[in-house]
Amino acid sequence: MSKLDQILILDPPCDLKFKGPFTGVVTTNLKLKNPSDRRVCFKVKTTAPRRYCVRPNSGVIEAGATVIISVMLQPFDYDPNEKSKHKFMVQTIFAPPNVSDMDSLWKDAKPDDLMDSKLRCVFELPSENDKVWFHPSKLQVFERSRHFQVSEVRRRRRKEEEEEFLPCSHMNCVTTGNQILKNQIKTHRLMAHNEACYLIIKTVPNRSDKHAAAKHKYENMVR
């Protein structure tokens, strides 16, 4: 038996586009429309579950109804030279007359009854007119801290390169993103504080220089 075609109409159908900057949570919407006269159960999976939050990540769509899925990308260090390999999959199945336990429904589902659609993630930078310019001092501090995060980010991305679709999380993505931003701000403030202390220590003369200057001034007064 051949695999069933996807019954839902997805908008967008192929690509989920996320528009930067990616220093905060970026949200894009996926619209699922059920054109049939039957109820349809859906479930959203992704190859990078730690990087996204999806609401709702599963549910039932009534006949002729539409559901809007919010896909939230968590803050990360964007590298324009690195292509995104993240993908999403919308898995569906016709709902039985009386469905109560969704977990059992998906667990006992036959492969021939499942329908799915895959979408790839596309990251876009803002246009020149949309860019936000920062003060040079703040930008310099941010660039310095960026080097400490690049190696860790690349290590995590290598682990996510394998195309394995896992259930999406519906946790509070905003809280997680804000916590990441708070940690970054603490790092920036600490680096700026250390740099300021270094400049103060470098510009203040030591005690021996002070004594020598005072002695020279006294000798000039005596003469």
Properties at a glance:
4 helices; Immunoglobulin-like; 10 strands; 223 residues; 4-stranded antiparallel sheet; alpha+beta
Overall 3D shape? elongated
Helix content: 25-40%
Total domain modules: 1
The low-confidence parts are 137-142, 199-204
CATH T-level topology: Immunoglobulin-like
Helix/strand-derived class? alpha+beta
* Share in β-strands: 25-35%
Main sheet makeup: 6 strands, mixed
Instruction: Give the name of the CATH architecture.
Output: Sandwich
Description:
With 223 residues, the chain is an alpha+beta fold. The chain has one domain: Immunoglobulins (Immunoglobulin-like), CATH 2.60.40. It has helices spanning 102-107, 136-159, 173-203, 207-222; strands at 9-11, 15-19, 26-33, 40-46, 52-55, 58-61, 66-73, 87-94, 115-124, 166-167. Strands 2, 4, 6, 8, 9 and 10 form a six-stranded mixed beta sheet that branches. Strands 1-3-7-5 form a four-stranded antiparallel beta sheet, with no helix packed on it. The chain is elongated and about 105 Å long. Mean pLDDT is 77; it is low at 137-142 and 199-204.
